[in-house]
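Table S2 (continued). Query chain:
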Amino acid sequence: MRVLRWGRAEYERPGITGLPEGVTVMEAEGPDAPLEEAELLAVPSIRPIGAALLPRLRRCRLVLTTTSGFDHVDVPALRAAGIRVARLPLARRDAVVETTLGMLLALNRRFGPMAAGAASGAWERDRLPAYGARMLGTVGVVGVGVIGSRMVEVLGALGAEVLAHDPRLTESVPLDEICARADAVTLHCELTPETRGLFDAARLASLKPGAVIVNTARGKLLDAQAALAAVEAGRLGGLGCDVFPSEPLDLRPFLHPRVIVTPHAAGWHPGLGAAIADGIRAAAEALLADAPVPFEVGSAGEPGAPPAATHRA
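Corresponding output:
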């Protein structure tokens, strides 16, 4: 079996150890990559895989995106050609959850405004109520897949009331209810035609006054400019953004005491390269054994599968 890694970040470990006998790995970056030879094609999110490439994927059995999201892969076109699609959501899951939680806590506890006050040399303990710091309260989790479900667990352990929305759940809290009740909303759904622009200016305006919103999923889920304007106008209590509709992006316009922005960094951690390598090896082993591929899109519990268990609090 020939595995082709078509593009990878510098922080990803190039070597994949412990591969079964007979599996070879090729690495390529540009458009002249030997796609024709790949039986397993591993790609990052910056590498679109669509119908135009199908004539070159004549030996391919599986496209594995090394990310959690898979909106850069034309799943219906590949399936129609008999090519399976899988992803690696566990590689970044805990790092994304920690980043999201950090943003939620910092925004709710008003670390930004307090730090700005401290930077000016002020000791403003007598003015603490004016900062409006609060507990987590009620948190809406939009998208309850691998990452979102862990977010639900962590928030519940901290005593937050969690409202979970996901069409794959047998019982899902409607978005209108989340917008009306939640003190904070965090986005963890995949980007699809239905979720593109899910939190546009109109939906942001329906959020509970003073609510906080965090997006560490996909940039096109949220109108970040409209969210920033709502924070500046005082309608929203805070904004946390790790992903944006167009990247890379000059983040200086987002500098505000009640806004936290990071450069698509939520999923990074020191062990990410090794975790991706482990995921590629597991997929290769499954293909060789004609066994189920972990996190195959459309398999049980994955996007494209029937509704699963409830997560309504």
